[in-house]
Design brief:
The chain is of the alpha+beta class and about 80 residues long. It has one domain. The chain has two helices and five strands; from the N terminus they run βββββαα.
Length: about 80
């Protein structure tokens, strides 16, 4: 499971099963989870994050979208 190292309380990653889907990241913290598409950045699903925290996560992904895309392309060879 490739993870993307970003300082903070969130775990960002994608899985080998995600191949064939548009580029995205999964974001976990404690028992909460979300999936965000990278192009354009938008929430695919949210399980437990407050609206305020989800906006914070969207900004975090937006600030690191180039890193996320690079990791995605390196892993899937696209």
């Amino acid at each position: 499971m490739p993870s993307i190292r970003i300082d903070g309380p969130y775990e960002l990653y994608f899985t080998s099963h995600d191949q064939g889907e548009p580029p995205h990241v999964h974001v976990d913290r404690e028992k909460m989870a979300a999936k965000l598409w990278l192009k354009p950045i938008s929430v695919a699903y949210n399980l437990g994050f407050s609206r305020h925290e989800l906006r914070k996560i969207e900004r975090l992904v937006e600030d690191n979208v180039e890193l996320c895309m690079r990791k995605w392309n390196e892993y899937f060879g696209t």
